[in-house]
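Q: What residues go here?
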């Protein structure tokens, strides 16, 4: 009986001491074989837009391969570094503050935190990618998710210009 009480009490303490986190989600649509000049970014994409302009690719394998390549580019370390550079001093302080108390045990770099809390997923069989970021501050979560999308687009446009 005492063991059950201790386990229950420990669970309650853990639950009440957990830091609340917020998840910001945005979407990015890859169009017509993914030419980088026509990537479009939206905070929230209405469901009616999901039916617009189907992709014309020669084979499903080609489309799947291109989308997987875009996901890999989105999750690259270099993109994380670009986002890290975009954090202003004020935003930088607000970003790191929730992690400073636990940093004594296992110090993490800003880059590691950025990469650990972002997620890129394909939405079903569509050409939409969902970009999400988790942070204790909802404004920071939204801003960082948007930075990931903006830097992805900037990186793709730079690659296109360089090519």
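A:
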């Amino acid at each position: 009986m005492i063991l059950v009480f201790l386990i229950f009490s420990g669970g309650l303490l853990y639950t009440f001491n957990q830091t609340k986190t917020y998840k910001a989600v945005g979407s990015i649509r890859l169009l017509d074989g993914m030419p980088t000049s026509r990537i479009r970014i939206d905070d929230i994409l209405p469901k009616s837009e999901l039916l617009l302009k189907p992709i014309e690719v020669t084979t499903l394998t080609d489309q799947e391969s291109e989308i997987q390549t875009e996901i890999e580019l989105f999750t690259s370390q270099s993109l994380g570094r670009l986002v890290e550079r975009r954090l202003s001093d004020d935003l930088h302080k607000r970003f790191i503050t929730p992690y400073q108390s636990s940093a004594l045990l296992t110090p993490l770099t800003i880059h590691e935190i950025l990469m650990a809390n972002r997620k890129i997923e394909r939405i079903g069989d569509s050409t939409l990618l969902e970009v999400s970021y988790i942070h204790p501050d909802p404004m920071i979560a939204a801003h960082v998710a948007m930075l990931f999308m903006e830097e992805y687009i900037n990186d793709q446009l730079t690659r296109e210009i360089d090519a």
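A: Context that may help when evaluating the design: The helical segments are 2-17, 60-74, 77-86, 89-96, 110-117, 138-162. Confidence is low (pLDDT under 50) at residues 33-60.
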